[in-house]
Design goal:
This protein is α+β, with helices and mostly antiparallel strands. It is 31% helix and 32% strand. Helix 1 packs parallel to helix 6. It binds uridine-5'-diphosphate (UDP).
């Protein structure tokens, strides 16, 4: 399958059309941004890590009954996926307080949460991806109630599967962000990526941060950490 015209370029990926209108090719870049694009940089090898890791996790989720956009990996950076219209929502799950949750509610990072917590952000860069609730989503027509119900069911399953999987790799799943898309025939499927860019992963033994916070917070060993996460996930 060959790339045709570029349809979209985001911060970390490009999306291309193919000869089949139902299939796209996503191509992962090494570009890294944080704080709504204010901090820019590059992480050598990140594109390949995120592509390969996402595909491993998506295959696992498919087995567990969560439909995903994955068709097949084409190369280290490129993957053939089902064409979808992405819902403009960042679906965030938190198992442990960190990042913006810690800041917003004044709880120390690393504080366990009484239950897995789901939140939505409205994907809109100009607004800085504001927090949004179900009523707001329905009022703005970003998704309908049936879509939201599906998204919640799949998201809970994604958390369970990923939490257990990463635990077997010596990694604690603190929080993560996923995105869903709608196929031309109206089905909701998991799209985008699952990677150290989109998950907070801490070493189970040492609590060392093994994710994009190394870039966001200038903690060093950024490239090495992305490679180390992929090695663990592959093992
Ligand atoms: N996240 C993401 N993209 C975003 C915002 C957040 O992938 O645009 C991920 C982030 O890596 C973390 C989780 O979502 O795993 C929760 O992030 P949070 O809301 O705490 O925001 P942050 O502290 O990263 O600004």
């Amino acid at each position: 399958m060959e790339k045709r015209n570029q349809l979209y370029e985001g911060k970390a990926k490009k999306v291309y059309a193919t000869d089949d209108p139902d299939l796209f090719i996503v191509s992962y870049k090494d570009d890294a941004t944080a704080f709504n694009g204010e901090k820019k940089g590059s992480i050598a090898g990140k594109g390949a890590v995120n592509n390969i890791m996402s595909n491993i996790v998506f295959a696992l989720l498919e087995e567990a009954g969560v439909p995903t956009h994955l068709v097949r990996q084409l190369s280290d950076r490129d993957t053939l996926v089902k064409a979808v219209r992405i819902l403009p929502l960042e679906v965030i799950v938190r198992n442990t307080a960190a990042g913006s949750f810690s800041k917003r509610y004044g709880v120390e990072e690393g504080t366990p949460l009484a239950q897995p917590t789901l939140e939505f952000s409205y994907k809109k860069d100009e607004l800085g991806d504001p927090l949004i609730n179900d009523d707001h989503i329905l009022a703005l027509g970003l998704a309908d109630q049936a879509d939201l119900d599906r998204v919640r069911i799949y998201t809970r399953k994604v958390n369970e599967v990923m939490k257990n999987f990463f635990e077997t790799k010596g990694l604690k799943l603190i929080d993560f962000k996923i995105e869903f898309g709608k196929t031309p025939d109206g089905r909701i499927i998991l799209a985008d990526e699952v990677s150290p860019d989109t998950c907070r992963l801490w070493d189970i033994e040492t609590n060392e941060k093994m994710d994009k916070d190394r870039f966001r917070r200038d903690l060093g060993k950024v490239e090495e950490t992305y490679q180390a996460v992929l090695e663990r996930v592959r093992a």
